[in-house]
Specification:
The protein is of the alpha/beta class and 403 residues long. It folds into 2 domains: 2-186, EAL domain (TIM Barrel, Alpha-Beta Barrel), CATH 3.20.20.450; 199-402, Hypothetical protein af1432, CATH 1.10.3210.10. The chain is built from 18 helices and 8 strands. It has helices spanning 36-50, 52-56, 95-107, 148-153, 166-175, 199-211, 218-225, 229-243, 251-258, 260-275, 281-300, 305-317, 320-324, 328-331, 339-347, 353-364, 367-377, 381-402; strands at residues 2-9, 15-23, 60-65, 83-87, 110-113, 131-135, 157-161, 179-181. It has an 8-stranded mixed barrel. Helix 3 links the parallel strand 4 and strand 5. Helix 10 (260-275) runs parallel beside helix 12 (305-317) and helix 11 (281-300) packs antiparallel against helix 12. The longest helix is centred in the last third of the chain and has 22 residues, at 381-402. The radius of gyration is 23 Å and the shape is elongated.
Length: 403
């Protein structure tokens, strides 16, 4: 089963929930006919077995249903305080559906209307809906300016989908939208703004540059790390968590124990944590998931160790433009990194470009393009799906170690 997640934010840019995008296998193109109900049941059961908390953490799961899916008994495997039932826009409405929605509401489930493009006053499902989703690519804000006050007055929660810029997010928020979904959070809000190069940031760049030398020095790295007491503490603590020991004696012993590749990963992750302090936490989580996902994909392609590490760093830095509010080429200018990384992120070419394209397609749930790339790579679809799940779990592990 393919499954991807897209964050849904509140006005404070805290994650309210995740919309789950899924496909049963590489050959499916959706769900239709007699098999629809059993397909949905398989998805719900699959999420139940994986552990919903491993996919959406402690947030709400938004899951799509149509007039056939909604009648599956498997729906109730997921508790109402963990799932929002999202009704697709092309749903056929009949008395049987309305009875089922009455039952679901009585059980405590919330209902969202996806890609809403109807008249608010007379739409039959409006009395059942808690959340109204507007696709702002299909329904511009200007076209619904008169409808929005009516929806708000009824106590409905407005969710703006396909929010791609900071300006649209701010406009939607001012109009009364409470939830937001899109990639606005991962893009520069002010293109070309220079990065505030604090001593800590410069130190990170120097450390990564040292690690990328042909013959990096453990002694030099330890000396640079020890200049910052907070950084030293954080690295020692992370090493202690990873080694399951209470303490690690010195920075040099950490370097020797973990090896340069792991130290590079940790330093890069800590750097992103510091740089993204005024950004949504989800942006850092996205970077970490991409980092591990890219490395696992590289391993599936049987790349050598150096290329796998480059893939990891490429994934980690792929959202650096949004974190630093700079175009990606400017964000990478201060770091000495292999050409393959900048080629993939800036020019979308080179040996890592296809991995980057696969990651972006998977995140968006563009399963046709995902399948095309996987086929071109010659890897098994099921392995890529499992690699994505492993990447989310690895992100959780790293976040715990960084607390």
């Amino acid at each position: 089963m393919f499954i991807a997640r897209q964050p849904i934010f509140d006005k404070n840019l805290s994650v309210f929930g995740y919309e789950l995008l899924f496909r049963m296998n590489e050959k499916s193109r959706g769900f239709d006919g007699i098999n629809a109900q059993s397909a949905t049941a398989a998805v719900i059961i699959g999420l139940y077995e994986l552990g919903l908390e491993n996919i959406v953490e402690d947030k709400m799961a938004f899951i799509n249903f149509d007039e056939v899916f909604i009648h599956s008994d498997a729906l109730e495997l997921i508790k109402p305080n963990r799932m929002i039932v999202e009704m697709l826009e092309n749903i056929a409405i009949d008395s049987q559906l309305l009875q089922r929605l009455d039952h679901i509401k009585e059980k405590g489930y919330q209902i969202a209307l996806d890609d809403f493009n109807e008249k608010f006053d007379d739409y039959p499902l409006m009395p059942y809906a808690n959340i109204i989703k507007y696709d702002l690519m299909l329904t511009p804000l200007e076209s619904i300016a008169e409808e929005i006050p009516k929806v708000v007055k009824q106590g409905k929660i407005l969710l703006a989908e396909k929010v791609e810029t900071q300006e649209v997010y701010q406009q939607a928020s001012a109009m009364g939208f409470q939830l937001f979904q899109g990639y606005f959070f991962s893009k520069p809000s002010i293109a070309g703004r220079s990065c505030n190069k604090s001593p800590t940031k410069i130190q990170y760049f120097q450390l990564i540059s040292e690690l990328k030398k042909e013959d990096p020095s453990f002694v030099r790295l330890a000396e640079m790390i020890e200049l910052d007491a907070v950084l030293s503490y954080r690295i020692l603590r992370m090493a202690s968590v990873r080694s399951h020991k209470k303490t690690v004696k010195s920075i040099q012993s950490v370097l020797a124990f973990m090896g340069l590749n792991q130290i590079e990963r940790w330093l890069s992750t800590l750097m992103l944590q510091d740089l993204s302090q005024d950004k949504p936490l989800e942006l850092m989580k996205l970077s970490m998931i991409r980092s591990y996902f890219a490395e696992l994909i590289a391993k599936e392609l049987e790349m050598n160790e150096s290329d796998c590490q480059n893939a990891s760093l490429m994934g980690l830095f792929s959202a650096l433009d949004g974190i630093l509010d700079q175009p990606i080429e400017e964000a990478l200018a201060d770091i000495i990194i292999p050409t393959a990384i900048s080629d993939a992120l800036v020019f979308h070419k080179g040996p890592l470009a296809l991995i980057y394209e696969l990651i972006l397609a998977y995140e968006k749930g563009d399963w046709d393009f995902t399948n095309k790339i996987i086929t071109e790579m010659g890897v098994e679809c099921e392995k890529i799906a499992k690699d994505y799940q492993k990447s989310i779990l690895w992100m959780h592990e790293m976040m715990k170690a960084m607390v």
